Structure formats: C-alpha cells, structure tokens
Amino acid sequence: MRIECVARPEDAGRRADAVLPELLPGQTRSGVQKLMAAGAVTRNGQPVSKNDKVSPGDRFLVDIPEPEPDHAVAQDLPLNIVYEDADLIVVNKPQGMVVHPAAGHADGTLVNALLHHCGGSLSGIGGVLRPGIVHRIDRDTSGLLVAAKNDAAHQGLASQLADHTMYRIYQAILVGTPSPDPGTVNAPIGRDPHDRKRMAVTMHGGKPAVTHYRVLERFTGYSLVECRLETGRTHQIRVHMASIGHPVVGDPVYGARRDPFGLAGQCLHARELSFFHPRTGERMTFQTELPDYFAALLARLRREI
C-alpha cells in the first residue's frame, strides 16, 4: 500500500522519523525507521533517512507492506522429493516457488507444501513461518534444498553451513564468458546503498562472500558456468557474476533490462548439494537434472554456435 503525505509548516527542522508517525496513522517511530532502512520512503522523489530534517511542503511517498502472516498453513502442493528419512528431506524446488511465507506470499510456498507432506515433523528453530528451513534459494532459482524434520537435525545442518562442510554447486548461463577460468569472486555483499531492495558488492557494511566458478561451455555471447558457494549471502551468485560484468541470463534485477530469450527468471539452478547426515555422519551427495527451461536454452545456444 502506497501512502502520500505532505509536511506541515510546524514540521520545519524536525527529524523525518519524528514527523512521519504523526502523518501516517498507525505507524510508530521504530516502524517508520524500518521502512526508511528498507528504502520504502522517499521525500520529493529521493530516499530519506531517519536523521534528515524536514521542510514544510516536503512530499513523502511511503510503501507500507502488507502484514506478514503469523503462521504457515499446510497445503497439498506438488513436491519433487529427492530423498527423505526421519531426520531430513531433500527436494528439488521448481522455478517460481517461494521458499517460505512472507509479505506478498502468504501461501503456495515450499513450506506450505512441506507442512502438508511432513505433518508436524519439521524443526521449529526457523519459527512458525520457516519450519524446517535450513537454507534458502531465490524464488526464480530452481534446484536442491534440504529441510530438517527435527531440531537436532536442523542444528547439525546449520553448523555445516557455518563451517562450509555443506557445499552447494549451481549451474548458470551467463552473458559473456568470465575470466580468469577458473576463478573466484571474493567480495562482500550488503544492501545496495542506492536501492534498499537490491543487494550489491559493498565495502561498507557488507558481509564476506566468496563464489568459486569455472566455465563448462562457451557459446556465442554466452557461457555455461558452474558456481560453488563458500558463503551463502542473499542473491550471492547473481550479485557476484553481475559485479564482474557477466550477469545471469534472465535476471530481472541484476541483468539486462531486456531478456532476448523471454525467460520467466534467472537461468540459475542448484544442481548439487552435499552434507554430512546429522545423525549418522555419512557424507550424502545429491544431484538433479537441469530443468526444462534451462535445458531448452542450452540446446538453443549450442545450435547457434
């Protein structure tokens, strides 16, 4: 919901985070500060921060998100199950499916499907909206994801994410061909200072992020690349590849504005997942075939060489 409001004469010289709660019914000062930090508030068309001083007549546009659901519900949705036992479940998530409920996606998510399939046997560490979720992949990224059925399994898998003994290998079709080959992008990732809805390589407040890549095939103007994550930051592969001038094909956020192939989203697939079973200690490795949208584009690029 977008709300427009205008600063009053008596607001001159006051802080923006003090004025806006008075102009926005139902909003607290801390709530307004969070909206500002998320890039949801502009003043006269420009981003505004909580410390900015207000002038009479300043015009604010505030995007207030829909309330988040307070719990996830079970839904009978298709699941592509790769492996399952009493402690965990590995699924192949399709492109277009959100992992867990959030504002704008109250249902139809992977969590809703897991709740129906697993019943009450999902770990509670992630909270009522993210039961069982150890790691995530973007809505328009397809591929392998593991969920935990109990807290002990969740803790065991999460610790492997932290110490990098769980590894995840993706395949992506990139614009151009990265060099050197193989190579590593070691660059911190944080919120884009110019657009809080995007992530970016940034030295100010960014978290360490490392992506290893190697080129598998070269085409005319494009390449098939394998990426191995050492860390797991939001949009990491998409941001890192774009930062070196080779965005993922079809990426609506970090790629070209015009997609010549008419894809529904980025051509990025989590193809391999490997971890130690949290109960037995056995190394388990899973692989999945490329989805149809990905394989079709590869076939086209191979024909055009």
Describe how the helices and strands are arranged.
Elements: E1 2-6, H1 16-23, H2 29-37, E2 41-43, E3 46-47, E4 59-63, E5 81-84, E6 88-93, H3 110-118, E7 142-148, H4 151-163, E8 167-175, E9 183-186, E10 189-192, E11 195-201, E12 210-218, E13 222-229, H5 236-243, E14 268-276, E15 283-287, H6 292-303
Parallel strand pairs: 7-14
Antiparallel strand pairs: 1-4, 2-3, 2-4, 5-6, 6-7, 8-13, 8-14, 9-12, 10-11, 12-13, 14-15
Question: What features would you highlight for this structure?
Answer:
nine-stranded mixed sheet; alpha+beta; 29% strand; 305 residues; Structural Genomics Hypothetical 15.5 Kd Protein In mrcA-pckA Intergenic Region, Chain A
Strand-residue proportion: 25-35%
What profile does the largest beta sheet have? 9 strands, mixed
What is the radius of gyration? Answer: 22 Å
Q: What is the typical, i.e. mean, pLDDT? A: 91
Description:
With 305 residues, the chain is of the alpha+beta class. The chain has 3 domains: 2-63, Structural Genomics Hypothetical 15.5 Kd Protein In mrcA-pckA Intergenic Region, Chain A (Roll), CATH 3.10.290.10; 68-163, Pseudouridine synthase; 164-305, 2-Layer Sandwich (Pseudouridine synthase), CATH 3.30.2350.10. 19% of the residues lie in helices and 29% in strands. The chain has 6 helices and 15 strands. The protein has helices spanning 16-23, 29-37, 110-118, 151-163, 236-243, 292-303, and strands spanning 2-6, 41-43, 46-47, 59-63, 81-84, 88-93, 142-148, 167-175, 183-186, 189-192, 195-201, 210-218, 222-229, 268-276, 283-287. The strands form 3 sheets. Strands 5, 6, 7, 8, 9, 12, 13, 14 and 15 form a 9-stranded mixed sheet that branches. The chain has a 4-stranded antiparallel sheet with strand order 1-4-2-3. A two-stranded antiparallel ribbon has the order 10-11. The longest helix is centred in the middle third of the chain and has 13 residues, at 151-163. The radius of gyration is 22 Å and the shape is globular. It starts with a strand and ends with a helix. The model has no long low-confidence stretch (mean pLDDT 91).
